[in-house]
Amino acid sequence: MENAGFKAGSLFLSYALGIDLGTTFSAAAVARNGQAEILSLGYRSPTLPSVIVARESGEILIGEAAERRAMIEPLRTAREFKRRLGDPTPILLGSAPYGAETLMSYLLRGIYDLVVEQQGETPSSLVISHPANWGLYKLDLLEQAVRMADVGNSQYITEPVAAALHYAGRERIEPGEIVAVYDFGGGTFDAALLRRTESSFEQLGDPEGIERLGGIDFDEAVFGHVMQSLGDAVDELDPSDSTAMTAVARLRDECRQAKEVLSVDTDVTIPVMLPGVQTEVRLTRSEFEEMVEPRIGATIAAFKRAVRSADLELSDVDRILLVGGSSRIPLVRQQVREETDSEIFLDAHPKYAIALGAAIAADLNLGTSIMAQMATLAAPRVEPPPAPPEPVAPPPEAPPVVEVDEPEPATPEAVSATPALDAALAEPETSELEAPVEAPPADVAAPAVDEPDSAPPPVEDEVVEVEPETGELAAVEATEPLTETGEFIAPATAEEVASSQWQDGIALSPILFAALGVVLLGSALVTFVLLTLVID
Question: How far, in Å, CA of 252 to CA of 249, rounded?
């Protein structure tokens, strides 16, 4: 969702949005820093009529604009489509078929755009409410509608929990208290049992509901009463006559308003302006209650089933919260109080309670997200360790220059700590026949010397003994060099060394041998010639 991330300095600019997609009316509320308020989506009321008109040009109208156009194009008007969610039969608007989830996406997108236009920015958190008794199939269709509306990431909340959150924001509810929600709206009825936790509510048992029971059914009852009072006059109306159908649509709206008036007055007069029929129909509260009493009894039975599903009794319920527009009917409050014998609380704005509760839930989600991101920003930043440098091949080394100092004669008292290294660097004794070899200057590298084919002469091994008690080095005993077979070799004398070097010199002078052979051959030839001449 856009602007969903936390930005420094934007804490007081971010807002959370809650939307209640109702059957007859929809509402939206925003919350900032724990304070929720209802938004005005219409010109005459904060709520928006859940009406869609698909014009022939392809334009989609919602809300009050659609309701005005519905008077002229009733066959292109869709109402109460929330009830049709999950029904595979399409809704025909003109000649085009629409699924209920598609129409809900149009309504959701229209409300979302109105809110963004009013607030000047997109919300940072969005929560959408739904009936508590919707199963996985309808919830999946609702998610499809949200995706088609393209309003970003959204979260969901049941209508009873949303209503309880709004109520808990105004009235103190101790943790552990059990609240029963009686939600009687325009198109559906929901009953759920909730237990207050430290921060929210948890559901107890299974929610109960009646999907096709709400205020529009009572509107239809009032409309039927009016049509019955008119007798045969309405039978002559032509369904294809747009003027007659517009008049019928206005009559239905008058019946809805009369139902609402009877919640505060004892009787009402309904004007009738049909083609060929202009009259009034009077309706009293007692007549109205007689029409709707059986349906109210069905809601009480569903409410009791919700309590029993949690293995509780009505006496275990601490308070009952009435929400939804139809809960304002005096007979509803009277029957709930009589049947449950519990304390009744009627929301001051039952039509807006769910949207306000959804906004509070969205604000709680936003606060949790902001706190988590602030903690992330406040945490010390740990720099990743630098990548190890790539190995570089070392340049070829020049032959090392080894300076060999003349070793001093070893004494029994002076013992080297590294006898093997000293032995390797020590220069062997020279005989009388060897000429001294001068060491090259320090700044001149020694020439590379080819290794001889034979192995170098063995180096004498030194044995170092350590005193076990003091740990000091004992006397050093030189051992005779070993051959490859492990036999000892006696040290060579000076004469043997000289003879060996003379033989090595001869072996290394093949040219001298050749020259000597030529001389001897020439001498023999000369001697032979001389002897021949003397004899002759």
Answer: 5
**pLDDT tens-digit readout, 255-275:** 999 999 999 999 999 999 988
Total number of domains constituting the chain: 2
- Nearest-5° angle of CA 272, CA 278, CA 282? 45
* Contact in structure between 302 and 336 (CB atoms under 8 Å): no
Contact 110, 18 (CB under 8 A): no
- Let me know if residue 397 belongs to a domain: no
Q: Between the CA of residue 53 and those of 88, 149, 255, 379, 483, what are the distances in Å?
A: 20, 17, 22, 53, 111
| Residue 160 · residue 205 · CB < 8 Å | no
pLDDT tens readout for residues 340-354: 888 889 877 788 999
- Residue 26's nearest CA partner among 12, 15, 40, 6 is 40
| CB contact set of 233 (below 8 Å; sequence gap of 6+) | 274, 276, 277
- Give me the phi and psi of 411, to 5 degrees please: -115, 155
Length of the chain: 536
Question: Which ranges in 342-487 belong to alpha helices (H)?
Answer: 353-378, 419-425
Tokens describing residue 385: 């360790």
Residues of the domain holding 127? 1-153+352-378
CB contact at 8 A, 188 and 21: no
